[in-house]
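Quick one: ABC transporter ATP-binding protein from Niallia oryzisoli, structure tokens please.
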Amino acid sequence: MISVSDVSKVYALESGDFFALKNTTIQVGKGEFVAIMGPSGSGKSTLLQLIGGLDLPTSGTIEVDGIELNKLNEKQRTLFRRTKVGFIFQNYQLLPMMTVGENIALALSANHAKKEEINSVVQKLLSDVNLQGKESAFPSQLSGGQQQRVAIARALAMKPSLILADEPTGNLDQKNGEDILKLLSVLNKEEKITVVMVTHDHQAAQVADRIIVVRDGVVVTDGNKGGNRHETVANRMA
Ligand SMILES: Nc1ncnc2c1ncn2[C@@H]1O[C@H](COP(=O)(O)OP(=O)(O)OP(=O)(O)O)[C@@H](O)[C@H]1O
Ligand SMILES: [Mg+2]
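--- reply ---
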């Protein structure tokens, strides 16, 4: 469960204070799949970064699975990101000098997992994202769709309860984009991972249970795409 309460993110510019987010309040239930839409510069990535503990709000509070992010120190926040959240970005953000296997294993290594455990997790994840045999390849040797699947495998390594995806299909063609959306949908439905996905693409947003629209740092619409949101959430949680 994610609870964003009266959150603002303010940047001090020469021209004065700029509100990237203004008094934003949203809740996302456990196991929900939410799409965040809105024009460029409206605050979508800012919201995602705050939920994921990559950045702190100027005011307001954010709670994820009962953890109040404002109350964590730097070290605890790093641990929160590493263990609770899987991040997926538009440009994949794989480390180019590391192999696919090493990229996937990053968080496990940082958390001092044993070598055998790392190996078995990496093999399982490679098979989950249909990239068997690519362990020793470098990111530059893979297609965009394959790189994004490595990024998803990396995001899953620590068994996060939450996936935060910022335009995960933004750099992909239709077919690869659909594959990624399907994968996210399966993770949401079968593994019960909560997914919050920023997208510009109305079709991509259709995989979500609910669409939140942000404009100029303010949530302007928060509802599902017809039907009863509460029933959807309740069914999912049952
Ligand atoms: N470090 C910063 N300093 C000043 N302004 C910033 C900073 N980071 C973001 N902003 C501003 O905050 C606003 C929201 O940015 P954000 O990246 O959240 O937009 P977005 O909705 O994700 O846009 P896009 O769809 O283009 O990715 C923008 O106007 C941006 O210029
Ligand atoms: Mg953005």
